[in-house]
Each structure stands twice: as C-alpha cells, then as structure tokens.
Design brief:
By secondary structure, this protein is of the alpha/beta class. It has 12 helices and 9 strands. α2 packs antiparallel against α4 and α3 packs across α4.
C-alpha cells in the first residue's frame, strides 16, 4: 500500500503531467528494450499469433509482433497520460465518426450497450465516453488486484462522468434512475472465467470461448447493442466508428449478438492485427468434451429465461 502510493504520487502522476510527445520518447526507449533485450510476454504473444495466423511464415508473424510492441508502448504512454489529460485535449484526440447513431437512440430514450474489445486505445474511450454521447456513461469491468491502484485508476477514469461498475453488481447500479438514458461500455474479448458458461465459436482460426455477458444483458435489460471499433488516425489520435447490431435484442436467437460482435472484432484484427492486445492469455480455456450437448443446454436455458 505504501509502496503503491509512493509510486503513484511520486512517479506516475508527475510523469502523466508531461506532454504526450515527451512520454512517447520514454516509451520509444522502452520499445527498444522489450523488442530486443527483455521481450514482454514473448511466449504468450508468439503462441497467440501462431494459432491465429497458422498460414503465415515466422517472418510475417514476427513483423506483426514488432508492430504490436510499437503499438503497445504507444498505448502505455497514452494510458499514463490518461490520468491527467485535459477534457479539451481528450476531445481533440478521440472523436466519433458517426455520432448520429447514438444520438438517434438517445432521442428514443433507448439504453445502449457499447460492445467491442481491447483494440487500439480503450482507456481514452473509458475516460471520454460521457463527453462523446448524450447518455449517462457506465463501464463494466473487473477490479484490479491492488485495491489502491483500482481506486486511483477508476477515480481518474471517472472524472468526466464515467461510472465504473463491477460485473458482479451491474444490476443494482443500472437500476438507478437517471435523467439521461444509459450507455454501458462492455469489452468482451477477455478470457471467460468459466468455459461452460461461455459462447464457443471459431475465432481467429481456433475454438474460442467468448464472454456471453453482453448478450445476456441486452436480453435481460432490453438494451440496444452498438458495436464500435477505434481506428488510429495517427499517433495519439483516434476515431471511433459505430455500428448498430440490434435495437430489438429479444427478437434474436441465442448467440446472434455474440457472434455478430465477435465477427466484427475479428474483421478489424485481421485488417490491422498489431492494434489488438496480443499479450493477453485469451485461449486458456479448454474446449468442453461435450460441447454439442452443452450448446443445446445453453440454448434451452436461454429460451426458457428470455423467450418464454
């Protein structure tokens, strides 16, 4: 606790106050270290890339890895800057290509799930979401292992209006009355905690367990579902593009929402793979031996709960 507080107040916050171009100088140096001297999570990244791109040569996969390391260090600099970035700078650096989609849903009073993955700069979106759309902003996540860092990071994420809530108590948080409709950010590309409660599909050339939470919430709460992708326009500048998956979740069959948002993310990854977070252990769940029977049971439970 004391060491964490010392690091936060003496090192991290003063570092975040530096101009972003100077932070990039530090992380450019860090890039040289992790690309050549102490490769960051090399085994995990190599394994993920080999499974996802089996038809590429080692040389081609190494090229993606080098680009990922470069992108990762940029994201590191931007993540540090996120702790103190001004509202004006954030609005200048993170924009929405087609905000009219969300504005139309807001005009109808529809609550929305914003769904995507850890692609490009998600931290700036978390911090700026309340500035971008005419909604009460919520973000669902899991707490950090350090209570001190969890509290401090979420305080900084929340300073422009974001409400950070835990996946375990989202019902209570979202049940509160608000003057604006709610927009809930869900990043659904983490490795699920339970392989038997996941949606299984082929994703990036391999059987993959996908979090089913977004689809469950859309049906349970009757929220519209909007997929977004974040494109890097240039270093330190991003543009978010929105796509409506559905505004009538209860009319869709089991798995349609999850399949759609996962396919959209997969498409973005295949186009520019370096912008995804390859250092995460996403494929650590084993495929259930009774997968066909499990899917039938999941469909039956889903239909009973949401379609009866």
């Amino acid at each position: 606790m004391i060491l964490a507080a010392f690091a936060y107040y003496v090192f991290v916050i003063p570092l975040s106050l530096l101009p972003l171009p100077i932070l990039y100088v530090f992380t450019d140096f860090f890039y040289l270290i992790i690309i050549s001297i102490v490769p960051y999570r090399k085994k995990v990244i190599d394994q993920n890339l080999k499974r996802s791109f089996p038809d590429l040569s080692d040389k081609e996969r190494n090229k993606i890895k080098r680009k990922f390391y470069r992108h990762f260090t940029n994201i590191l600099a931007e993540g540090i800057k996120n702790l103190s970035i001004s509202k004006a700078s954030l609005k200048r650096r993170f924009k929405v290509q087609n905000p009219e989609l969300m504005e139309e849903l807001a005009s109808k009073g529809r609550n929305v799930l914003l769904v995507s993955g850890h692609y490009n700069n998600w931290e700036w979106l978390i911090t700026s979401q309340a500035l971008l759309f005419p909604f009460e902003a919520y973000g669902i996540g899991m707490p950090l292992s350090s209570k001190f860092w969890d509290k401090k990071v979420n305080q900084r994420r929340s300073r422009f209006g974001m409400n950070v809530i835990h996946a375990g108590n989202y019902r209570e948080a979202l049940a509160k009355e608000t003057s604006l409709p709610k927009a809930v950010l869900v990043l659904s590309d983490q490795s699920p905690g339970d392989s038997r409660r996941s949606y299984w599909m082929q994703f990036l050339n391999q059987p993959t367990a996908v979090l089913f939470g977004a689809e469950m919430m859309a049906n349970e709460l009757d929220y519209a579902v909007v997929y977004f992708t974040t494109h890097q326009k240039k270093r330190g500048y991003y543009e978010m593009k929105l796509e409506l998956i559905t505004d009538q979740a209860k009319t869709l069959s089991w798995g349609e929402i999850t399949e759609k948002h996962a396919r959209l993310l997969e498409k973005e990854i295949l186009e520019k793979p370096q912008h995804w977070l390859w250092s995460h252990k996403r494929w650590k769940r084993e495929v259930p031996e009774d997968l066909d029977q499990l899917k039938q049971l999941q469909i039956e439970k889903f239909t009973t709960k949401y379609r009866s």
